[in-house]
TrEMBL record:
InterPro entries: BTN3A2-like_Ig-C, Ig-like_dom, Ig-like_dom_sf, Ig-like_fold, Ig_sub, Ig_V-set, IgSF_BTN/MOG. The gene is vtcn1. It is found in: Membrane. GO terms for biological process: cell surface receptor signaling pathway; cellular response to lipopolysaccharide; immune response; negative regulation of T cell proliferation; positive regulation of T cell proliferation; T cell costimulation. The lineage of its organism: Eukaryota, Metazoa, Chordata, Craniata, Vertebrata. Residues 51-148, 166-237 form the Ig-like domain. PANTHER family: BUTYROPHILIN, V-SET DOMAIN-CONTAINING T-CELL ACTIVATION INHIBITOR 1. It comes from Danio rerio (Zebrafish). This is V-set domain-containing T-cell activation inhibitor 1. SMART domains: IG, IGv. It comes from the Eukaryota. Keywords: Immunoglobulin domain, Membrane, Transmembrane, Transmembrane helix.
């Protein structure tokens, strides 16, 4: 039978354990409130070579996205020394900026106080491809968001009706090297031939629809690689070739095959008709 001393000792141990749990719980809540949220607006982004690209990052406290003061923002790139961009004490701090990003990176100072930590990267290069980390420290907010930038090259094709009645498509800027396929209005694949010219690492695409085209008929040309699909429509009229192009980005899973992408696009194009 336990003595009174043993009972008291056991009760004290139990009380200490319970109190410790309560303290840990309170600290966890306080820590959560103090950390807030730092998140990527688009975790994987596809940028077009030589164009500008936005790496989206925002932050907010757990009580709402209000006004912030005394904000510190640091952008880093994996496997690259120095910073991509650093903002502290209401000014850019570029003493340790990597030369790769000199005069090409910027934040948006006027909107930092409202939670905008996005980075604008100008005139992107192939070597800009990689993983970026946006770290924010402010009152009740502390954290890091990750953005993966995939750099591709893509351009809309220009269509021309040739004297023999065939239709050509020329796109001057693609990387990685794409596939090209032509379709009629019913979604049937058409006979075509395509040539690729590598100019300093960038692919020039020239594709020919071999079957004679019909007036007022619409033809679809898909140029696609692992990152981007260009969906183009060309309608031949008596006086011109009316054309339009839109792009679909495969940022979420760059390991998908081009065939998988093609099927997906065709479902989008023809499944709703």
């Amino acid at each position: 039978m336990a003595s009174i001393g043993q009972i008291i000792f056991g009760s004290m141990i139990c009380l200490i354990v319970v109190m410790s749990g309560i303290i840990v719980f309170i600290l966890a809540i306080a820590f959560s409130v103090s950390q807030g949220t730092v998140e990527s607006i688009s975790p994987t982004t596809v940028g077009n070579l030589d164009d500008d690209v936005m790496l989206g990052c925002r932050f907010l406290s757990n009580t709402g996205n209000g006004q912030f003061s005394d904000v510190s923002i640091t952008w880093l790139k994996d496997s690259v020394s120095g910073v991509v961009y650093e903002y502290k004490n209401k000014a850019a701090q570029l003493q340790t900026q990597n030369a790769q990003f000199s005069n090409r990176a910027q934040l948006f100072p006027d909107s930092i106080s409202t939670g905008n930590a996005s980075l604008l990267l100008r005139n992107i290069k192939l070597e800009d491809d990689g993983v970026y980390r946006c770290t924010v420290n402010a009152a009740k907010v502390s954290g890091t968001a990750i953005v993966t930038l995939r750099v591709a090259a893509f351009s809309a094709p220009t269509f021309t009706e040739l004297t023999n009645g065939s239709l050509s498509a020329v796109a001057t800027k693609w990387f990685p090297q794409p596939e090209v396929n032509w379709y009629n209005q019913s979604g049937q694949i058409l006979n075509s031939s395509t040539s690729f010219f590598n100019i300093a690492g960038i692919i020039h695409v020239s594709s020919l629809l071999q079957d004679p085209v019909k007036e007022n008929e619409t033809y679809r040309c898909l140029i696609q690689n692992s990152l981007v699909v260009a969906v183009s429509e060309a309608t031949v009229t008596a006086h011109k070739v009316a054309q339009s192009t839109y792009f679909i980005f495969n940022a979420a899973s760059t390991k998908k095959s081009c065939l998988h992408l093609l099927v997906t696009v065709l479902i989008l194009l023809y499944g709703v008709r």
